[in-house]
Amino acid sequence: MPLSEDEQRILSEIENQLRATDPDLAKHVGSTTVYSDSLRKLRWGVVAFLASLVLTVFLLTVHFALGFVGFLAMVASAILIEANARRMGKAGINEATRALRSNGIRSYFNNAGDKARERLRQDDED
């Protein structure tokens, strides 16, 4: 059901007030999608899986029981990956692929580093 003209006007006034009072929040809300959280968790799951794979290979050289612990970490990471990929669904994966193609992987990691540096600077200033 579409909004009436009056409702659209009220909504645009609220948006303008939000942009005027808190531009950072407005930018964050405007750039966040339904799939952002799942995509972020999916990325961390892949990183955890790769790290646990390396850990498993290393621990197998020490003792097979420790290697099994690394294997369990790999299984937990795989479960995390599967759950978030399922949550994203086909539409979310298509959106993530489109975003990576338009921005590039290097841009994603550079932005993540810039965000981390900015957070650390803010903590130092406080």
Quick overview of this protein structure:
The protein has 126 residues and is mainly alpha-helical. The protein is built from five helices and no strands. The chain has helices at residues 5-21, 23-31, 36-62, 64-103, 105-125.
Describe this structure in words.
The chain is mostly helical and 126 residues long. It folds into 2 domains: 1-32; 34-125, no CATH class. The protein has 5 helices and no strands. It has helices at residues 5-21, 23-31, 36-62, 64-103, 105-125. Helix 1 (5-21) packs across helix 2 and helix 3 runs antiparallel to helix 4 (64-103). The protein starts with a helix and ends with a helix. The mean pLDDT is 81.
Summed up, the helix count is 5
- Quick check: average pLDDT? 81
Main sheet: strands, sense, barrel: none
> Segments where pLDDT lies below 50 for 5+ residues?
none
List the quaternary state of the chains: single chain
Work out the radius of gyration.
21 Å
Number of strands: 0
Number of domains: 2
The 3D shape can be described as elongated
Estimate the strand proportion: under 5%
The class by helix and strand makeup works out as mainly alpha
Gap from first CA to last CA: 47 Å
Order of helices and strands: HHHHH
**Portion of residues in helices?**
over 70%
